[in-house]
Amino acid sequence: MKLDRAAVAIGGTGNNSGNSGVCAVIAEVRIQGGSDGSKFSRRSVLGYAAGGAAGAVLLASSAPSQAAPMKFKADMNGPTEVPPVQSAGKGTVTATYDPATKVLTWEGNFSGLSGPATAAHFHGPAEPGKNAAPAVWISEKGQNLASPFKGTATLTDAQADDLQKGLWYANVHTEVNKGGEIRGQVVKE
């Protein structure tokens, strides 16, 4: 199927000033069907309002809303680990979450660790200063993580909610610091 035509019309009654009377907002959608070329047409009254200005407001409010992708960032270091870690390591993760697809994409880097990064995760839900279990793996299970890195994951509704509330942190683990050597809270940019 493909969209053949979509239209919205505003019509009404009243005087020529457009400030009185009743206004109707009508949408028409035509869809071309399968291999037989059949068409389906549907008209719907989206609403009524008094006066031309009210009709314009009704039309504006009937447009579908789609949330824009959200950007996040985490600055990672040893002192933000719980408990704090003495490390020269530092790193950054930037991420974008698309609410329409529920896909989180990220990229990041780190340097100065005590050894190879043995694992990395987004953990949550947890406020700063609190620990939580991994929510999403940044590294592949059982594989060291090289810097720079990038990845994607599809989030559950609960994970997306925690991320948007600032309840996730990024954590890079090493052999010396199995609980995490550098960490940073994931916050909206």
Write a structural description.
The protein is mainly β and 189 residues long. The chain has two domains: 2-61, no CATH class; 70-188, Superoxide dismutase, copper/zinc binding domain (Immunoglobulin-like). It has helices at residues 52-61, 157-164; strands at residues 2-12, 22-32, 39-50, 70-77, 90-98, 103-111, 117-123, 134-137, 149-154, 169-174, 182-185, 187-188. A five-stranded antiparallel sheet has the order 9-6-5-4-12, covered by helices on one side. Strands 8-7-10-11 form a four-stranded antiparallel sheet, with no helix packed on it. A hairpin with a 6-residue loop joins strand 2 and strand 3 (39-50). The radius of gyration is 26 Å and the shape is globular. Residues 1-10, 15-20 and 53-64 have low confidence and may be disordered.
Question: Can you tag this structure with a few keywords?
Answer:
single chain, 189 residues, Immunoglobulin-like, 5-stranded antiparallel β-sheet, 2 helices, disordered N terminus
For the largest beta sheet, what order do the strands appear in spatially?
9-6-5-4-12
The beta-strand count equals 12
Let me know the average pLDDT: 80
- How would you name the oligomeric state of the polypeptide chains in this document? single chain
Helix content: under 10%
* Domain module tally: 2
* SSE arrangement, N to C: EEEHEEEEEEHEEE
What CATH calls the topology of the largest domain is Immunoglobulin-like
The main pleated sheet reads as: 5 strands, antiparallel
Number of helical stretches of at least 4 residues: 2
The best one-word shape is globular
CATH superfamily of the largest domain: Superoxide dismutase, copper/zinc binding domain
pLDDT below 50 for ≥5 consecutive residues: which ranges?
1-10, 15-20, 53-64
Tell me what portion of residues adopts beta-strand conformation. over 45%
Structural class: mainly beta
For the record, what CATH class of the largest domain applies? Answer: Mainly Beta
